[in-house]
Amino acid sequence: MLEVTKSATEKIAEYFKDKEVSPIRIFLNAGGCGLPSLAMDLDEPKDTDDVFDIDGFKFIVDKEFMKEAEPIKVDFTRSGFQFDCAIEFEEGCSACATSGDCG
């Protein structure tokens, strides 16, 4: 299951206001301090992806990753996009922010 909050879709709509809307990939990325975290980027779906239509946007997630990470939640707060998922990662170092990490 993928949940994208209203505040997140509103911010995405703001981004695409003067741009052509593209699918948005949610993926595991090496985060601050080299720790993994979820991230988003524009991409095209592949045969190995799940595609979710949410509030007029296509979100794509690799099927195998989705099995491990679901449920995934994307939110937008004053500090930016925040992700939550079922995978638990180690804490980041004290010198960097770990918001956006799964877990």
Descriptive account of the structure:
There is one protein chain. The protein has helices spanning about 5-15, 65-70, and strands at about 1-5, 25-30, 35-40, 50-55, 55-60, 70-75, 80-85. By secondary structure, the chain is an alpha/beta fold. The protein has one domain (about 1-85): HesB-like domain (Hypothetical Protein Aq_1857, Chain: A, Sandwich), CATH 2.60.300. The strands form 2 sheets. It has a 4-stranded mixed β-sheet with strand order 3-2-5-4. A 3-stranded mixed β-sheet has the order 1-6-7. The longest helix is centred in the first third of the chain and has 10 residues, at about 5-15. It starts with a strand and ends in a 19-residue tail after the last strand. The relative contact order is 0.26. Residues about 90-103 have low confidence and may be disordered.
Concise summary:
The chain has 103 residues and is of the alpha/beta class.
Observed structural traits:
disordered C terminus; four-stranded mixed sheet; Hypothetical Protein Aq_1857, Chain: A; 17% helix; globular; 103 residues; alpha/beta
Main β-sheet, spatial strand arrangement: 3-2-5-4
Mean of the pLDDT scores?
86
**What's the end-to-end separation, in Å?**
16 Å
**Count of helical segments?**
2
**Order of H and E elements:** EHEEEEHEE
CATH topology: Hypothetical Protein Aq_1857, Chain: A
The computed structural class is alpha/beta
**Which regions contain 5 or more consecutive residues with pLDDT less than 50?**
92-103
**Main beta sheet:** 4 strands, mixed
β-strand amount: 35-45%
Compute the number of strand runs: 7
